[in-house]
Design a protein that fits this description.
This protein is mostly helical. It has helices at 26-49, 54-57, 68-74, 78-81, 86-109, 111-134, 144-153, 158-186, 194-202, 204-209, 214-224, 226-241, 253-271, 297-301, and strands spanning 2-8, 13-19.
Amino acid sequence: MEWKYSQNKRYGYNYHSFIVPMQINQSHRERFTKIFLLIFYWLAAYKLINGLWLYQAAPYFFINRFDGTTWLFMQTGIHKWLLNNKAGWILFDIAFYVMPVCWWLVWRKNQKAGTWVAIAWLVINWIYIQCYTLYPTNSIEACTAWLLMPLIFATQRIKSFYFLMHALRYFFLFFFLSAAIWKIRQGGLFNAEQMSGVLLMQHKEYLVSAPESWYTNFTYWIIRHQSLGYFFYIASTILELVFAIGFFTRKYDKWLFGCFILFLAMDYLVMRIPYFEVLPLTIPLFFSRYEEPISDVQSLMSDV
């Protein structure tokens, strides 16, 4: 609740009034959903064009991860069944890319049924992402949004949606802040040669396979100029630390989105890491300014 003090110039007396902050509602939830669907299918088109759907990757071997949940999943043998299984790849791709719009169509007609579709969506995403990232395609960290977003759409009450949305927002902030803490904890921030070593490790295949390309020359230029590489490393760490602001205030959320876009662009240019699939986690930054919904008007007045 925000109190406002103002003065009537004509009659010369003061009065107080209160301004009720905008509460999140179903209209905001629908906008949130439409933005998510737009991002999801834009990324689906991007991945299709760049040959990143499962059927295009055509996996014939898998890798292991130091992850207990993944080890439990591997006991099912689904990832082995998919190897050299073209029909399986197409089936998994269809299930993964169709579920969001299926949920949307069902939820608009029946929210209770939409909850069950969202749960099925969550299970399908979990299986798909586990298999997809076990093959040499992308890291599971980059696909975290697909593992979490169905949870927020499984809610029926707007209040539950509000709290899950903010939980997602805090996870996004932690996602970047923890990366900065890791750089400090590992000592990379205090090593002037760190970025040069990271670039050599990250691009070793590309540097060997395309020695004459402009990107190879660009990468070697940064590697040779260690001070510049170290500046990039420090700048990225500071940019990640900035996300700590979001734990104390929501006022600068749109600025944090700008920091994310800057980080995304530079990471893609310098490191060739397409973290575009993290984009859905930024949606709460645009809705965080709305307050918790209160359905009882008398409850609102009792706070005055």
